[in-house]
């Protein structure tokens, strides 16, 4: 296991429940934190409490962090997607974090670690748009891990189902009577994230914390 104490870490999307929990866990493990949030006022107190710097963008801060986590919430989707252009734009927006991480990987030192967190709202069905989106992200994680493996830079994914995974509009909302599945608590997400960041032999893996939802899709 790679020791996290003394490592420099950037956490993006820290305003999300997963991002907040991971930032707290990294701070407890002794990492030096730099936080990126689209909602700066909301996380100023968190940054101060963790003795972390708060960045406007992930391009700021340390040039070569040891650890990079993107826990940004999935973006809002349109109510309907009726054309090829609609689908292309939706996938571009939803998968922009992968491009950010790929750009950051070029500037990271060898033996570092990257983690992409895709927190799925518990109320959303596993069918429809969700399974292809998760599969695309898993493939992107594996591809980036393959590109960086020779340097010893590890890339993994984490896909928890959470009560507060995100509030998505339109066709992503469930019927009112649809039963809810079990969810991962933020502390469980943070524990899994720290394991993936520290496990020296784990790369190209996307770990699902979904209570078997995918097995029932």
Descriptive labels:
217 residues, alpha/beta, Rossmann fold, 8-stranded parallel β-sheet, globular
- The whole-number mean of residue pLDDT values reads 83
- CA-based shape: globular
Count of distinct strands: 8
Rounded to the nearest angstrom, the distance between the terminal CA atoms is 34 Å
Unreliable stretches (pLDDT < 50, length at least 5) are 166-180
> Assembly type of the shown chains?
single chain
Structural class: alpha/beta
Protein name: SDR family oxidoreductase
Family: Belongs to the short-chain dehydrogenases/reductases (SDR) family.
Keywords: Oxidoreductase
InterPro entries: NAD(P)-bd_dom_sf, SDR_DHRS6-like, SDR_fam
Q: Could you explain how this protein is built, in words?
A:
Helices cover 35% and strands 17% of the residues. It is α/β, with parallel strands linked by helices and 217 residues long. It has one domain: Rossmann fold. Strands 1, 2, 3, 4, 5, 6, 7 and 8 form an eight-stranded parallel β-sheet that branches. Helix 1 packs across helix 6 (186-198). It starts with 7 loop residues before the first strand and ends in an 8-residue tail after the last strand.
């Amino acid at each position: 296991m790679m020791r996290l104490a003394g490592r420099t870490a950037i956490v993006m999307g820290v305003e999300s429940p997963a991002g907040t929990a991971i930032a707290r866990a990294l701070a407890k493990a002794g990492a030096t934190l730099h936080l990126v949030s689209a909602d700066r006022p909301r996380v100023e107190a968190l940054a101060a409490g963790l003795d972390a710097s708060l960045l406007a963008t992930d391009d700021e801060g340390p040039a070569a962090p040891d650890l990079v986590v993107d826990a940004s919430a999935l973006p809002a989707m349109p109510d309907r997607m009726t054309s090829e252009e609609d689908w292309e734009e939706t996938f571009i927006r939803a998968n922009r974090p992968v491009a950010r991480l790929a750009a950051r990987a070029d500037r990271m030192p060898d033996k570092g670690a990257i983690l992409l967190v895709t927190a799925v709202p518990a109320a959303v069905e596993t069918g429809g748009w969700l399974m292809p989106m998760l599969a695309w992200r898993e493939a992107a994680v594996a591809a980036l891990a393959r590109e960086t493996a020779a340097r010893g830079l590890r890339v993994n994914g984490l896909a928890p189902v959470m009560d507060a995974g995100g509030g998505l509009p339109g066709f992503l909302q469930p019927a009112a009577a649809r039963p809810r599945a079990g969810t991962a608590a933020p502390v469980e997400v943070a524990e899994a994230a720290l394991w993936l960041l520290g496990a020296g032999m784990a790369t190209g893996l996307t770990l699902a914390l979904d209570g078997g939802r995918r097995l029932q899709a």
